[in-house]
Amino acid sequence: MDSQGHDIQSPGAGRTVEGLAGRRILLGITGSIAAYKAAVLCRLLKCAGAEVRVVMTPLAKQFITPLTMATLSKNPILVEFFDPENGAWNSHVSLGEWADCYLIAPATANTLAKMACGIADNLLLTTYLSARCPVVVSPAMDLDMYAHPATQENLRRLAERGVRIVQPAEGELASGLTGKGRMAEPADIAAFVGQLLGGENPEKKKSLQGRRFVVTAGATIEAIDPVRFISNHSSGKMGYAIAGALAARGADVTLVSGRTALPTPAGVRRTDVLSAAEMYDAATAAFDRADGAVMCAAVADYTPDTVSETKIKKCGGEMCITLRRTRDIAAELGARKSSRLLVGFALETHDEQVNAEAKLAKKNFDFIVLNSLRDAGAGFRGDTNKVTFIDRSGREELPLMPKSEVAERIADKIESLLK
Ligand code: PMT
């Protein structure tokens, strides 16, 4: 066992990582204290049947030795452009061509920034620029570095270019602080790569290959002042399950997400937003390049007319906040959809059928997924939902089921409509 309780002999014991047998994984390691987890990750990939080669930045050698990684990967470790002993050239181009997946774990703020800018001052970075395979990064850093707008902007740029991000976890950090920035656990990273490379049912995987979708998920946040906001109870679970189900069938998915604690589903490109206005911008931009969209987010219909720059202080009497309408993202996509597919949601508390049909028509959805808060186990936060599909030819009522299963049924319906 290591100091964190990982079993080095059989990492991730009890979890089967599918989709990795025979796959070629290039593991990039950068200079973070989390580099020690790369040893466990490497073992886990090897145990799952992957061939692993390792490229390290010079600083990474300070955190974990090349000897350790060479022993675990059963391959020599690559750090420099040239072998100082014999001058042999380590070709970043052939490394990039060799790999089925380039997994950079841990990825420091520094490396992410260089990747976002196209800087190529070490072998790990030149290989990134040459890679033709999917690239996955698993960020690891202190919470303030992770939250810094520069880092967030770099991650956004990388995600927009197709780099997959394994979201860091929240917890105790090497600095002693607690927050988000801790590298995801090796078993979760390996599972992410396995799913990306096709651990799912291969038939399903291919069925949406070449299709691009936008999925909105979670709640928007409308600021009142620096302290308060207007929001709702959406956890993002339903939308994340849909994004994951579409990606598992081979679709290229952009998930436009309100604030949530959920990890990004495997193979999904995620854009984080806060307000309805930000969600509008991200969703409309992504829709231009998409074959369809699933609008699962619970978007604020109203936002404060002005946002106070300072905390609003208590005063004697009552207080009024003037709200103005937000733009309706789904209605906008419906207006410009042409032959693209548009799926909506309706969360209702009464007159469910009538309200859902009105939204179907008004927003030009191909079908709408109705869920009602009157049904036990349906709607916000939980892991189950009870939905009814409504389109112009009728309705199909589904029983209560896990949100993951609802997502599969939605993906099935999307597939049949695209045929
Ligand atoms: O996230 P979970 O906790 O798993 O909960 C899932 C859910 C309950 C949020 C989800 O199943 C759901 O019902 N989402 C839609 C909730 C909703 O607020 O719907 P609505 O009736 O307000 O909006 C109708 C449709 O228009 C929706 O597709 C919505 O995403 C979209 N819309 C609404 C307003 C707006 N400004 N822009 C929009 O795109």
TrEMBL record:
Its cofactor is Mg(2+); FMN. Residues 213-419 are annotated as: Phosphopantothenate--cysteine ligase. Pfam families: DFP, Flavoprotein. Residues 1-212 are annotated as: Phosphopantothenoylcysteine decarboxylase. SUPFAM superfamilies: CoaB-like, Homo-oligomeric flavin-containing Cys decarboxylases, HFCD. Keywords: Decarboxylase, Flavoprotein, FMN, Ligase, Lyase, Magnesium, Metal-binding, Multifunctional enzyme. This is Coenzyme A biosynthesis bifunctional protein CoaBC. NCBIfam families: coaBC_dfp.
